[in-house]
């Protein structure tokens, strides 16, 4: 949703790329967690929330900083694969733990991961369009709300809610 608030000029192809990145990372992280198995589960489960928190905190604070900048300054409204990748990783790190759980429980992996990836893909696309509509209603300063949402998401992951 935050990208819908902040990047009004995203093309349909760029929105599709967001969906693909988020869907693929949400699919891949449980698979990677499953493959890592139980040997490193305690280490990864302790550090992964911190990594996600730090990434989301930095991105959220940057969004807030940019929204509080001078109104005369034109904000860069461009699609950035590096930022999309960081967001996709940050929001899917907790899915790594799901994969570890699948490995520990010796549960089927592929069907749940495919469903997770498809749902993430669809929700990302829908979220961008909802964010765009909310941004149109509430104006450019709604980017602050987007930044705060990312920071709270980081805290949610860190605290395990």
Based on CA atoms alone, the radius of gyration comes out at: 17 Å
Helical amount among residues, as a percent range?
A: over 70%
Listing every helix as H and every strand as E from the N terminus to the C terminus, the arrangement reads HHHHHH
> Structural class, please?
mainly alpha
Number of strands: 0
Task: Name the overall outline.
Answer: globular
- Beta-strand share of residues: under 5%
Q: Average the pLDDT over all residues and give the rounded result.
A: 82
Separate helix tally: 6
Q: Which regions have little confidence, pLDDT < 50, spanning 5+ residues?
A: none
How would a textbook summarize the main sheet?
Answer: none
N/C terminus separation:
20 Å
Strand and helix layout:
Elements: H1 2-6, H2 12-36, H3 41-67, H4 81-105, H5 110-138, H6 143-159
Helix pairs in contact: 2-4, 2-5, 3-4, 3-6
């Amino acid at each position: 949703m935050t990208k819908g608030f902040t990047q009004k000029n995203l093309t349909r192809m760029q929105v599709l790329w967001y969906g693909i990145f988020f869907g693929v990372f949400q699919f891949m992280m449980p698979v990677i967690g499953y493959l890592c198995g139980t040997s490193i589960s305690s280490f990864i489960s302790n550090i992964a929330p911190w990594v996600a928190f730090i990434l989301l905190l930095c991105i959220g604070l940057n969004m807030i900083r940019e929204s509080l900048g001078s109104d005369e300054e034109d904000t860069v409204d461009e699609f950035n694969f590096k930022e999309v990748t960081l967001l996709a990783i940050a929001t899917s790190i907790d899915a790594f733990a799901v994969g570890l759980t699948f490995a520990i429980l010796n549960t089927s992996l592929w069907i749940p991961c495919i469903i997770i990836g498809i749902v993430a893909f669809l929700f990302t696309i829908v979220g961008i369009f909802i964010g765009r509509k909310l941004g149109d209603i509430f104006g450019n300063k709604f980017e602050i709300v987007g930044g705060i949402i990312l920071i709270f998401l980081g805290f949610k992951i860190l605290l395990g809610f």
